[in-house]
Amino acid sequence: ITEVCGAKRVGYFGPAQFYIALKLIAAAQSGFPVRIESIKNELPLPRFMALKNDGEVRYGTPAELHGVKFQVPHATLEKNSYKRTDEGDKQEPKSPPMSPICSPPASPSTYQRIPLSYGYGKSRSGLEQQHGAPYEVRHPTHQQDGPSSGNYGAKPTLACSTLNRSLSVEREQQDSNTHYSDDPWRITEEQRDYYINQFRSLQPDLNSFISGSVAKNFFTKSKLPIPELSHIWELSDVDCDGALTLPEFCAAFHLVVARKNGYQLPETLPETLLPEYLQAASLKPMRDCALFDSYSEPLPGGQQTRDFSRTEKASAEEVPDNSALLQDAKKDDKKALKVSTALKMIPKEFQHLTVKTAAQESNALKARPRSRSYSSTSIEDAMKKGEEPPTPPPRPQKSHSRASSLDLNKIFQQNAQAVRSGWLPPPPPALPPRPSVSQTEQVSEVELHPQMNRPPSQAEENSSAKKEVVLAQPPSKPTRRKLRTEAQGLETPELSPTINVTSSLPAAKPHLPVQKQSSKQKRAIQTAIRKNKEANAVLARLNSELQQQLKEVHKERIALETQLEQLRPVTVL
Amino acid sequence: VLVSVICSPPQNYPLYIRSVPTENELKFHYTVHTSLDVVDEKISAMGKALVDQRELYLGLLYPTEDYKVYGYVTNSKVKFVMVVDSSNTALRDNEIRSMFRKLHNSYTDIMCNPFYNPGDRIHSRAFDNMVNSMMMQVC
Q1: Where is the composition biased (Pro residues) (chain A) (predicted)?
Q2: Which of A16-20, A117-121, A237-241, A331-335 is predicted least confidently?
Q3: A212 CB contacts (<8 Å, ≥6 apart)?
Q4: Which of A68, A168, A423, B101 lies at a C-alpha separation of 20 to 30 Å from A22?
């Protein structure tokens, strides 16, 4: 085997040779001939009888052989007893071993860990991948199960020494579970449970913070040097508020554990330790993705996709489910809260609207979306941001329906008197072509009028413009009224201030009393309002442009007229 | 050329010094040290109770022929001093202000770390990164 894998030739067991050797061992044990080709078969794990761990210990054979630096699972520290005498030199020439801080004694020479600077988790060359079915189950068939669970239970109450011991136990659990994800920065379920228990011991409310001093005392117990703890804090306190939320705490604890196990601390927080990631794997995929992009990742892209696929698996687990459910419940609460605040807003706004003039109305309406955001907490805002992108598509259809548009009509007809004339507000999104058409009609009407009416002088241009509009009003009234019945009567204060004619338009319209509305309708109303405001702005701009054109046309006409007058006497003469 | 220093009261010893490029560092250290007097003078001159952002920024402390020194003081009397090459005329006041603001923000982030004792030298990697990026931007 040594010869085949190339160790003899090279003179030592580099990673590649090591992997090949392991595979060959497995092959030989399963009865395949010892040749390079047999590596390609699906091989069971090689069994090393020399290792005694109060039980069976199996190694995974690496799946990837090339270019991958490997990290040995921590459990292999127990395998120090395994003497690789027959395989000659270890990988000393390859890389400096990282001696873990609380490692069991003896030589890590047999299994060395390549420093994380090479790439965290990337080098988890599937050593763990091929663990058998038992390893897929959370608790390994390790002997340490007994004492480990004992320790586990006793942890929350014990002091630092137990912390150390439990850390070592955790390490094994972490090791055996790292096969589940090649990433040492991923928090497994037991770890998460453990962290949550620890959090509870420090701060009973899981949704609140651990203050800096409390956390400092706690982490100092882990006997890491202060600069390292400081760095860990820097990494994990993402919002830099001097306190740790549950996910931040988990990340910090995880980093402490990793450091104690000998991993170097990363320069930036790995994606799997981000608070958002830890908090809601299922909740906000969009934001997570955005955040992942913003963080520099030590993991390569391939790893990332693998991690993502694993997160889905992970999210199927209980604890993340619980936390996710918790988050979902919170989110629903907040949504309900938001809706109820929105509901509360609306009656107030009705009062506003009935009293004010158009200008004030506009302000109130403008303020409505703003005050909505004021009334909600910042978390709600965040939740809303998450919610709003997905939900808008269904809403516009609601506003298409007659019922909701009628409701909106009811609302705004309270402002009916104060509503100025001017361009009609656009009907709900389904009907945009028509208002523009009607408005172009109106515009053309307006332009025709001056030519027909021959306004007296240039000085009265403005007033003539007004007049035109007034004149244009009656003919367009019927069209406008027709549109009005369908439209939501949003007044348009931004429209050209020159047009200050308040119309007596809606007097004829019935004043439907405002019925109690369902929250859905209100939401539809608000969206419709938003849309109307946008359309408003567009139309206002259009209006002003058209007014400009109108003025220019006026000027031209007047110039032509004066020219004509000048010329006429000549011809008469 | 850019040197930034953070000095803390009461003795005004530096918590953090970073300069780019790194030759002639001592000269800049000396300059910073002397400019601390100017800073103190300005602080005592202010004396009023109200301290807001604008007053935190002390502006050009002392222009010598080669370089300019800018100062900034926080509410807790932690002083930030920046020495900039005079040849770097592209640097406007706004940019200096924004640089000080960034320094201040990073400094408060460091303060939030419970493992940091005020008065220690600053070893934060995040802070280093920020300062480096700022300096690279200038030079």
Answers
A1: 94-107, 424-435
A2: A117-121
A3: A242, A243, B112, B113, B114
A4: A168
- For residue A228, list chain B residues with Cβ-Cβ distance below 8 A: none
Higher-confidence residue of B50 and A479: namely A479
pLDDT tens track for A554-572: 999 999 999 988 888 766 6
The pTM of the full predicted model, rounded to 2 decimals, is: 0.38
**Which residue, among B67, B12, B15, B54, has the nearest Cα to B36 in the 3D structure?**
B12
Q: How confident is the model over B69-73, as a mean pLDDT?
A: 79
Of A215, A230, A267, the CB nearest to B116: A230
* Structure token digits, residue A386: 């998450």
Q: Are A72 and A139 in contact (CB under 8 A)?
A: no
Chain-chain contact of B125 with A231 (C-beta, under 8 angstroms): yes
Contacts of B115 in chain A (CB under 8 A): 216, 226, 229-230, 233
- The CA distance from A234 to the nearest CA of chain B, in Å, is 7
In A415-460, which residue ranges form alpha helices assigned H by DSSP? 433-453
For the CA atoms of A549, A552, A558, A560, what is the dihedral angle to 10 degrees? -100
pLDDT tens digit sequence for A343-378: 444 444 444 444 444 444 444 444 444 444 444 444
Question: What is the tally of structural domains in chain A?
Answer: 2
| Residues spanned by the domain of A262 | 189-278
With tokens 């800096």, the residue in question is A212
Sequence letter at residue A183? D
